[in-house]
Amino acid sequence: MTNREKFDVIAEVFATVDRADRDEILEFVAKEKAALDRKNTAAKKRAAEKRAAGDELRGRIEAVIGTEPITVNGIIDALGEEGLTPAKVTARTRQLYAAGIIGKEQVKTEDGRKVMGYFKA
Questions:
Q1: Is the pTM above the cut of 0.85?
Q2: What radius of gyration, in Å, describes the C-alpha atoms of the chain?
Q3: Based on the domain organization, do 3 and 24 belong to the same domain?
Q4: Of residues 112, 120, 118, the one with CA closest to residue 73
Q5: Which helix (H) or strand (E) holds 108?
Q6: How many domains does the chain divide into?
Q7: 20 vs 64, which has greater pLDDT?
Q8: Are residues 39 and 82 in the same domain?
Q9: Residue 20 is assigned to a structural domain of this protein
Q10: pLDDT band for position 20 (50/70/90)?
Q11: CA distances (Å), 80 to each of 17, 61, 64, 74, in order?
Q12: Pair 34, 83 in one domain
């Protein structure tokens, strides 16, 4: 049960009860429901902004990937952005791979490690 549903139940019960403080409680419930609405609206706005930033980053990552396999660290170096983490790049490459925009294959790095390389599909 959500908080909104709980407040609806409280308002429903207190609407039928004859108490001296009934109006005060109903006013409190209305204010709390309005606060929940404002909080939900702000959360949706923040989520939309994060999605837009992720879409923009995904587009820049797609532009960096060519026909030759490039690793996540190679993508980070090519973008040259401060604060760009391997986790953010990996998440976007997974999305691009799932959409069929890029392919992936295992490649060896200069130090002999095997890592995933991404290329245009």
A1: no
A2: 25
A3: yes
A4: 118
A5: strand 102-108
A6: 2
A7: 64
A8: no
A9: yes
A10: confident
A11: 65, 11, 11, 10
A12: no
For residue 66, with 0-12 CB atoms within 10 Å meaning exposed, 13-18 middle and 19 or more buried, which class applies? exposed
- The amino acid that residue 1 corresponds to is M
Q: In this structure, how many other beta carbons lie within 10 angstroms of the beta carbon of residue 61?
A: 25
Amino acid at 20: A
* Positive/negative CA dihedral, 106, 115, 50, 32: positive
Q: How many other CB atoms are there within 10 angstroms of residue 71's CB atom?
A: 18
Tokens 């609405």 -> residue: 37
DSSP 117: E
Tokens linked to 47: 């989520």
Are 47 and 69 part of one and the same domain?
no
Cβ atoms of 61 and 43 closer than 8 Å: no
Question: Do 28 and 6 belong together in one domain?
Answer: yes
75 contacts 65 by C-beta, under 8 angstroms? yes
* Backbone phi, psi, residue 115, to 5°: -135, 170
Residue 68 and residue 119 in contact, taking contact as beta carbons nearer than 8 Å: yes
